[in-house]
Amino acid sequence: MHSALLVIAAFLACSVEMVEALTIVLAVGVTRGWRSAGWGVAAALGCLALIVAALGPALAHLPIDSLRLVVGTVLLVFGLQWLRKAVLRAGGLKALHDEEAIYEAEVALLRARGERLEHDWYAFTVAFKGVFLEGLEVAFIVVTFGGTQRNVGLAALGAAAALVVVLIVGSVVHAPLTRVPENTLKFGVGVMLTAFGIFWSSEGAGIAWPGGDAALLAVIAFVVVTAFALVAFERRAQGSLEVVQS
Amino acid sequence: MSALARFGKFWYDFIIGDDWRIAFGVVATVAGVFVVAHHGFNAWWLLPVAVALLLAVSVTHELRRHLR
After folding, report:
1. How far is A139 from chain B (nearest CA, A)?
2. Is B31 among the domain residues?
3. Disulfide engineering: A189 pairs with which of A11, A12, A27, B10, CB 3.0-4.6 Å?
4. Do B7 and A206 touch (CB under 8 A)?
């Protein structure tokens, strides 16, 4: 009975972490392209494999809060920039496809010069950070859950099952995602990165969220409401100006 | 542009971006949350509220610039 509970507990805990990583990778892959995001995932998995192989059970002593603080803060700064642009686009203050126009112009220029397209460091870094941090947390869960029950193998089995389920979910979800309008998707990515950034950096700073990991849903809802309120404010302000001018 | 310059520009764009106030405000607030949390006060609401204010200030600034 204890063995089954250990596998289930490891499966559930690891699923939560893996879904968080999957959300970030899907968001970056769909909006910025899969090639660089894929390299980010591969690099993160490579680093994780090295760290797990080198440290093993000593993993439980790594300063996870410091990592959350640094990664969360950078993700929050980056996510807020993304969300700001999406809010400005949705409110009509920024052209919907300005970045795409720049990107297309850059690609055309490079092709004309016979150069190949640059590596997308944004996609690489964001995918790397998401997978690396969450992967490290999965490794902690396996080591701590397995260590306390003196059966790391069973905890690893739960984690492996979670990986299979999350990968299946990811492959099913990614196709419909590509059909979502681009700016809506970018808005969603900005919301997710900002919410994850708030959640991780607060945890890393020493905050205990009421309700634990479930608080992430409340943070996402808060960011969505804030962003929509700002879009409405922008539209109203521009509408008022048009009325005054006419 | 050399590879090193491109790498440096990437990190500037990544960390600072279009509005430096956002990067500065986030880092300052997270530092504040860290200090407050280590003095025994679980101010979980502080960062979400600060983020909402920072976004509002940045968008309002852009709106004013646009309407001028």
Report:
1. 26
2. yes
3. A27
4. no
Residue in B7, B12, B13, B14 to test binding to A, most A beta-carbons within 10 Å: B14
Report whether B20 contacts A45 (CB < 8 A). Answer: no
User: Distance between CA A214 and CA A194 in Å, rounded?
Assistant: 16
The answer to whether residue B21 is domain-embedded is yes
CA distance A214 to chain B (A): 14
The ipTM, to two decimals, is: 0.89
The upper half-sphere exposure of residue A88, i.e. CA atoms within 13 Å in the direction of its Cβ, equals 24
- Whether B10 is in a domain gets the answer no
Residues A95-116 have a mean pLDDT of 54
Does the pLDDT value for residue B25 go beyond 80? yes
Q: Which of A93, A194, A230 sits opposite B56 (nearest CB)?
A: A230
Domain count, chain B: 1
Segment A186-207, tens digit of pLDDT: 788 788 889 988 998 999 999 9
| Mean pLDDT value across residues A56-73 | 76
- What burial class does residue A62 get, using C-beta atoms within 10 Å of its C-beta: 0-12 exposed, 13-18 middle, 19+ buried? middle
Decide if A202 and B54 are in contact by the 8 Å CB cutoff.
Answer: no
Domain holding B25, by residue range, is 16-67
Q: Contact A234/B59, CB-based, under 8 Å?
A: yes
